[in-house]
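Kindly review these tokens for lecture notes.

. . .
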Amino acid sequence: MLKIERLTKTYKTGDKALKDVTVSVPSGEVVGLIGPSGAGKSTLIRCINRLVEPTSGTVHLGDLNVTGLSRGDLRRARRRIGMIFQEYALVERLTVMENVLSGRLGYVPFWRSFTRRFPQESVDKAFQLLERVGLGEHADKRADALSGGQRQRVGIARALEQDPELLLVDEPTASLDPKTSRQIMRLILEICEERGLPAIINIHDVVLAQDFTQRLLGLRAGELVFDGPPSALDEAALTKIYGEEDWTAMRRHAAEDAKGDALTEREMAERLEGLA
């Protein structure tokens, strides 16, 4: 379980990015983190693994107090926390396999990481993960030859190569088209269900968050103003998180987009059948 208590981040300018955020995420739960730009979503995710140092408060992962660790202990603790980035954070000149194996860097001696000579067990696991995310045939391809959706799948496989106890996902669909976005969210949800992994997903697309997460957290100006199931995210809740807007129109447009995607998939299937 992830347990965050009264987490606060104040910058040197005096601006508060987070204000006494308290939340718990049990094993296996996939949580969507929503809110306007500048609400503190990315800061919250980065404070959990201390890529950003919180000003006060605590973060516990199981029995481990992440906020109380020394730098050396923190490096080891980060093995337990998988991170999936918006911009993929791949080494583009390396192969897909080498990028996935970089998830083991916290486990192997320096000479192995420097020469990229990983234990066979790690290599076998990487192949299995690439098959799971649908990239088994791309293991030897350079990362810069992949599409955006494929790169995000490599990022997912790399995070899983760590054997994490928690997934932190920062805007995984921001650079993807609607259909690929749904595929990536579905993949993350399925993997978390298979492994009993808790996950926090920072996501701008409210409709995607409602469709693919089990619980939503709404941040506004660094404060947690909503915590509940997707079904409870009504117009009043959306207004509390984002401010006044025509939320009925947003939902209608989202439904039309989803219908268009389904039609495209059906048309493609029909065309393929005609070619068979």
In short: The CA atoms of residues 265 and 271 lie 10 Å apart. The chain has two domains: 2-243, 246-276. The first helix runs from residue 41 to 48. Confidence is low (pLDDT under 50) at residues 271-276.
